[in-house]
Amino acid sequence: MMKNLVLIALFLFSLEGFAQFNNNNGGRGTLQHRRPVNSKSQKPPEFNVEKAIGLNFYDVEKVLNKMKIKNSDANYTSLVSLFENFNKELKDYSRINSFSFSEAKKTIEAAQKKSMDSQDYSFVQKAYLKIIEDLKPAINLVKEKNEELDKNLKGLLSEKQFSKWEKYKKKQARSRN
């Protein structure tokens, strides 16, 4: 009986010591062990103008695979050419406007740096508003091209395939952000 009592006590003490050891050394996620974040050492997030205006290029094979369209389908070649033309038009537009896109990126990054230094984030808000105003034609063109693509796809795809396209497009938009 005494032997069992000693073994139980020894087990409970070792269990308590193990719990305290894990709490102090292994518990990196606890609040008491987190290091304070220094805003000076923190880098501002990367700003991608093309993603910000909604410029999205589609991998033709991946899109057609997601919509369950095979090489043998009647609309396959027209769908491939539709997506390739869409990508080509947007790449050309991106190339033509690369200077304004790079200027917008520089403006945002400068505002982020200034905000990080001064702890006043109104600089970033003002820069975003300025960029939105400057890039409004690009945003509208991308929106028009996407609507045109949807209209053309609606004529070529079945309802089920078009709903798969809509889901894929929404998923791409979420991953862009």
Written description of the protein model:
With 177 residues, the chain is mostly helical. The chain has 2 domains: 2-33; 49-176, no CATH class. Helix content is 73%, strand content 0%. The chain contains 8 helices and no strands. It has helices spanning 2-26, 49-52, 60-66, 76-96, 98-118, 122-134, 136-156, 159-176. The protein starts with a helix and ends with a helix. The mean pLDDT is 82.
Terminal Cα span? 66 Å
Sequence stretches where pLDDT stays below 50 over 5 or more residues: none
Number-wise, the strands total 0
Judged by helices, strands and strand pairing, the structural class is: mainly alpha
Rounded mean pLDDT is 82
Number of H/I helices: 8
Put the structure in a nutshell.
The chain is 73% helix and 0% strand.
Topology at a glance:
Layout: H1 2-26, H2 49-52, H3 60-66, H4 76-96, H5 98-118, H6 122-134, H7 136-156, H8 159-176
Helix pairs in contact: 4-7, 5-6
Features:
177 residues, mainly alpha, flat
